[in-house]
Amino acid sequence: FPGLNCSYACRQQGLDPASGVCFCESGYQLGGDGTTCIDINECSSNNNCVHNCTNTDGSFECGCAIGYRLQNDGISCEACDEHFYGENCETPCKCGRGAQTCHHIDGCVCELGWTGETCEQDVNECLTSPCHGGHELCLNTPGSYRCECKPGFNKSNEQCIDIDECQDSTICPQKCVNTEGSYACACNDGFKLDENEKDCEDINECQQAKCHDCENLPGSFRCYCRDGFLLNSTTQMDCHNIDECSDGSNTCSPHATCTDTIGSYTCKCPDKGFKGDGHECTACEDFTYGEQCSQTCTCNTSNTETCDGSSGVCACKTGWEGRDCDIDVDECKRGTKECDDTELQICVNTPGSVHCECRYGGVDLNNCIEPKPEYTTSKIETKVKVEARFETNIGRQEFLADSEKFVEEYEKSLNAFYEEENVNGFSSVKVLSVRFGSLIIDYEIIGSINNSDSFKTDLAKCMTQLLSGKINITVLQQTQVILTVTIKDQSGLQLTSLSSSAFPCYVLKSFGASCSSGKKCIDSSGVATCVDDSSDEDSSMFLLYLGVSIPLVLIIIAMMGCWIYHQKTANRVQVIRLSDPDVQKMKVCKELPKRNFFEDMEALGPFFGQVDWPSKK
């Protein structure tokens, strides 16, 4: 059939000789294309094999499991007999003496205690420590084992009990020590075991004793130690030095240093701060210090708590400082003392202490006296604000207690003073407050505004006389000496500070007064006087030349002296003390307000004489 391409063979289909089909040999079947032959897997269908089925090309084979043999029918399986085992029962059984049987699958099956392929190898059970008693030994036997007691032990109720060999009193001459499974001989103290480890011989301890004297005795000895040494209570053969410093048997002072020596000890007081022989040490007293208290402290004893006995350092009492406690601590300047910030209190430093006081008087800090309110002038009045410091012997406590009385008395006396001096336009004095140091009086002088110039001129004259001491005021039946005066503006700020050395014309100007037009101020016998500008011109010019030339010559001489001195002491620094009189004169000149040349020369009148300037050319 030309149209067919069969993989095995073809045949006619039916009666039509032109129609054919493909077919396959036994064990194969025709595939889906009708031409290809595919092997039939008989093992996937009912094949009647008892154990195993193996597919082959066009057929299949039956097989048996290990330990079985295929029967003649090709499908049945039978177990191996007792002489064979394994696959297809091909391996013969060659089991040894330890075998129990021959298994058709595994071969030789061993009895307990045997191992190996043929059961000829004995199992050593002792390797797994089957004997659990503490004193048992394991003995291996063919196919088994047994447990026995170790030497020195007996079996009792399945337990190994130690044999006490020491129950035999003859076994050792002195002491017998039973041990587990054995025994040992021992000797009493003072004896040692012989080489046979049984007999005992006396020990001569004196051969090893370190004591000073030794006596050997049978089985013992006796040691003796000298004074300062102690026998070792354990060995009874060593003489140890007694550390009296550690055991407390010394007689040193608690402040002393104890030094142990061989057989004795020494005591020594501290190098500084104590005196004594070591057995008695006394701390330095009465402000002494150093070795054996041989030095005297430099502390001020009144201001010092203690003086360190070792270093001599002074421990100051509160309120004092310095190496010798002789410097008072000014707590007010340091700000360590805080007073009420209402300005009614003031911090007062005292030697070694500090406290707050009322600034304007009063003994109760919670109720300090306050300054009086300032006087309010009318349209026809003017006033000058003054702060005057008077020298007085009034104490601080008296001031605090009687400050209100001082306000009244000073106001009364000042009013009387200005009235007696006939100050033109004067109205009254209002004392606002009084402060301590010596006594500082703040007051206002009220006068008529219509006579303002003459009012201030008269005030300046009175103040000049007060400052110079030509006149004084009396308060509380005591003459008051005025030290300084401060002129203030209407807001209370300082304008000018005046002292006893102030020039009268300067005082006049400080009060805001001046000479009228065409007049000038001169210091005439300590009084500010207004005179005509045109008088005594010739003599004035001479005095002018003289007053100018003398200072210039002095200045040149001083400069030359300074230059020579500077060349000699180029590397030295000169300290100028502000308290020197010359420096005070310089300060006075510096404080003078700016004026023209003639006014300056008038101010320097006490140095160059009184000068009447006819004209200011």
Characterization of this structure:
Keywords: Calcium, Disulfide bond, EGF-like domain, Glycoprotein, Membrane, Repeat, Secreted, Signal, Transmembrane, Transmembrane helix. This is EGF-like domain-containing protein. The strands form 21 sheets. Strands 39, 40, 41, 42, 43 and 44 form a 6-stranded antiparallel beta sheet that branches. A two-stranded antiparallel sheet has the order 1-2. With 617 residues, the protein is α+β, with helices and mostly antiparallel strands. It has 9 helices and 46 strands. It is elongated, with a radius of gyration of 69 Å. Among the domains are: 32 residues, no CATH class; 37 residues, Laminin (Ribbon); 38 residues, Laminin; 37 residues, Laminin (Ribbon); 35 residues, no CATH class; 157 residues, Alpha-Beta Plaits; 85 residues, no CATH class.
Compile the SSE list and pairings.
Layout: E1 9-12, E2 20-23, E3 28-30, E4 37-39, E5 52-56, E6 59-63, E7 68-70, E8 77-79, E9 84-85, E10 91-92, E11 99-103, E12 107-110, E13 114-115, E14 121-122, E15 136-141, E16 144-149, E17 153-156, E18 159-162, E19 175-179, E20 182-186, E21 191-193, E22 200-202, E23 213-217, E24 220-224, E25 229-231, E26 239-241, H1 244-247, E27 257-261, E28 264-268, E29 274-276, E30 281-283, E31 288-289, E32 295-296, E33 304-307, E34 314-316, E35 320-321, E36 327-328, H2 331-334, E37 345-350, E38 353-358, E39 381-391, H3 396-420, E40 426-436, E41 439-448, H4 452-468, E42 473-475, E43 478-488, E44 494-499, H5 504-510, E45 519-524, E46 527-532, H6 537-568, H7 581-591, H8 597-603, H9 605-608
Antiparallel strand pairs: 1-2, 3-4, 5-6, 7-8, 9-10, 11-12, 13-14, 15-16, 17-18, 19-20, 21-22, 23-24, 25-26, 27-28, 29-30, 31-32, 33-34, 35-36, 37-38, 39-41, 39-43, 40-41, 42-43, 43-44, 45-46
Helix pairs in contact: 4-5
